[in-house]
Design a protein that fits this description.
Chain A is mainly alpha-helical. Chain A folds into 3 domains: about 40 residues, no CATH class; about 240 residues, Cytochrome Bc1 Complex, Chain C, CATH 1.20.810; about 110 residues, no CATH class. Chain A is about 65% helix and about 0% strand.
């Protein structure tokens, strides 16, 4: 814990309740809860950008719950998969609701993840001492993408099948072992029943792995402490407040806003984030005119297609995420928060716009000016990390940092 | 407001009273919030629990219509209803007479034959052919009582499918059914 500064807890509940003491003497759950919720120091200036972590956590719980109940009715066999999903939609009581929550929920999960990662990028939450916290977070991001990819295959629509075919075929780009690896992944000579079956098992398993990694993520966070909008670490007791009641209630406001957006899509436009072609049963003989992954993969898909070489495209696509691991060593600015780095602020803004542009390019056809635009955008994405961030500290004039979180708070209120 | 209620209190006591009011107001607000959250959570769980109930396609098979126009006297038709075997038997007058003359004191599970058939339609016996002992399917037309004989543990049923001998505790179950018309019965 940073500086061992803590919030005061006048009396533990174990001193007031005999039952609490009895339990705690045998399993220190009460002490742990009191420590995390009441004693652990949180910067008092955390904005709503800090609520996206818990929102992502709730999204994970929603996905696991709905997924469990869907799995009671879904059949992971190519002859029955598509129909079992329609059975859920039409015959299972509230099946339509559970299915739509799961489908829309996946998108909402990625909205929360992107917002959460953006917060990290802007406020320098990847810098010392939070490097491992950042790396564990990227691992969660990768696991979630893998889970979402396999989940999308399960309804066995046209996009399910052809998306699976395109992405698994990527591994054939690897020299020498590529083809065998792909046949091994498929369990056959094309995406077929063995592939569907194992994707179902792995899709079911991975969320529980994600829960484990999230717990590691939280332990690391607890060890180094939360960052805050000033980027100035906690110095005294005046800088901190307990999680409960301040952030419990603040996060609940975040949940309400999240579920409002969720509800908007869920109840009025549940299919708008998906692709209509996925309501056509998979046909291995007919490829759709435009194969598009789900929206949250589009920027990376654009990078993949931008490179004219097959292996190059694969490496650049995975590299785009691998690059995030190197961030703590690429950005050497002493100042953590983008709020005090005027040039970084503008560059970051361009980065976000560029990322969104890459997403739009990802669903455009790979022809004409789109190709050159994708290449330019990919170049900008990479140079943000490899050129701009390392060079910035050398000539950037940062704004003066506040003395402390408390000083900043007093100046603003 | 506290001035009107307690005009003679000292300032410290007034402040204390206000504090108590604030705390009870806080308790009310927090309590209401938790109650609302609890109701919300219960409402949210209900669809999930309901999704485990029989789905609409399964529920549609909850009723089965049986054409009885081609069942000859002394013969039976077997149908599947809710996953269980059901016998629709057209009894002979002898079988009906046998069933009606049995004394209630002889029966382990006393039931009059007339209670096991529809009024005026004693010809038709509709029973679920699952032995009430441990669930095997008894063989029709076998056994001392000329009804059913269960090969698993030797239970014997009479012409009204009532248990007469053997370990079964109850008579064969009569499912809910009705005569749609002379030719058709609907089970369930």
């Amino acid at each position: 814990m940073s500086n061992h500064i803590q919030n005061d807890l006048p009396q533990s509940i174990t001193e007031k309740s005999k039952l609490a003491k009895w339990v705690n003497d045998r399993l220190p759950i009460i002490a742990t809860l009191e420590d995390t919720l009441l004693k652990h120091p949180y910067p008092k200036n955390l904005s709503y950008w800090w609520s996206f972590g818990s929102i992502a956590g709730i999204a994970l719980v929603v996905q696991i719950l709905t997924g469990l109940f869907l799995a009671m009715h879904y059949v992971p066999n190519t002859a029955m998969a598509f129909n079992s999903v329609e059975h859920i939609m039409r015959d299972v009581r509230y099946g339509w609701l559970i299915r739509y929550i799961h489908a829309v929920g996946a998108s909402m999960f990625f909205v929360a993840l992107f917002a959460h990662i953006s917060r990290g990028l802007y406020y320098g939450s990847y810098k010392s001492p939070r490097e491992i916290l950042w790396w564990v977070g990227i691992i969660i991001f990768l696991l979630t993408m893998a889970t979402a990819f396999m989940g999308y295959v399960l309804p066995w629509g046209q996009m399910s099948f052809w998306g699976a075919t395109v992405i698994t075929n990527l591994f054939s780009a690897l020299p020498i072992v590529g083809k065998s690896i792909v046949a091994w992944l498929w369990g056959g000579y094309s995406v077929d029943n063995p592939t569907l079956n194992r994707f179902f098992v792995i899709h079911f398993l991975m969320p529980f792995l994600i829960v484990g990694v999230v717990l590691i993520h939280l332990v690391s966070l607890h060890t180094v402490g939360s960052n805050n909008p000033t980027g100035v670490e906690i110095k005294t007791k005046k800088d901190i407040i307990p999680f409960h009641p301040y952030f419990t209630i603040k996060d609940m406001v975040g949940f309400v806003a999240f579920f409002l957006v969720f509800g908007y899509f869920l109840f009025f436009y549940p299919n708008s984030l998906g692709h209509p072609d996925n309501y056509i049963p998979a046909n291995p003989m007919v490829t759709p005119a435009h194969i598009v992954p789900e929206w949250y993969f589009l920027p990376f898909y654009a990078i993949l297609r931008a490179v004219p070489d097959k292996l190059g495209g694969v490496l650049m696509m995975f590299g785009a995420i691998a690059l995030l691991f190197a961030l703590p060593f690429l950005d050497k600015s002493e100042v953590k928060s983008g709020a005090y780095r005027p040039i970084f602020k503008k560059v970051f803004c361009l980065f976000v716009i560029n990322f969104a542009f890459l997403g739009w390019l990802g669903k455009s056809p790979a022809e004409g000016w789109y190709v050159w635009a994708s290449r330019f955008s990919t170049l900008f994405y990479y140079s943000y990390f490899l050129v701009i961030l390392p060079l910035l500290p050398k000539f950037e004039k940062t704004l003066p940092l506040p003395e402390s979180i408390d000083a900043d708070y007093k100046a603003k209120h | 407001m506290s001035e009107q209620e307690s005009p003679n209190l000292l300032p410290e006591e007034k402040a204390k009273e206000e504090k108590v009011k604030d705390e009870s107001r806080r308790k009310l607000l927090v309590g209401t919030a938790y109650t609302a959250a609890g109701i919300g959570a219960a409402c949210a769980i209900l669809p999930f629990i309901d999704s485990m109930n029989p789905s609409k396609d399964v529920a549609a098979l909850a009723s089965v219509e049986v054409d009885i126009s081609n069942i000859k006297l002394g013969e039976e038709k077997k149908v599947m209803w809710r996953g269980k075997p059901v016998s629709v038997r057209r009894r002979t007058p002898e079988e009906i007479a046998e069933a009606e003359k049995v004394e209630m004191s002889e029966l382990r599970d006393p039931q009059k034959d007339s209670d096991r058939v529809k009024p005026g339609k004693a010809e038709w016996l509709v029973t679920i052919e699952i032995c009430t002992h441990l669930g095997c399917i008894p063989i029709a037309g076998e056994g001392e009582y000329k009804g059913w004989f269960c090969p698993c543990h030797g239970s014997q049923y009479d012409t009204s499918a009532r248990i007469r001998k053997g370990p079964a505790p109850k008579n064969l179950e009569i499912p809910p059914y009705e005569f749609v018309n002379e030719k058709l019965i609907k089970i369930g």
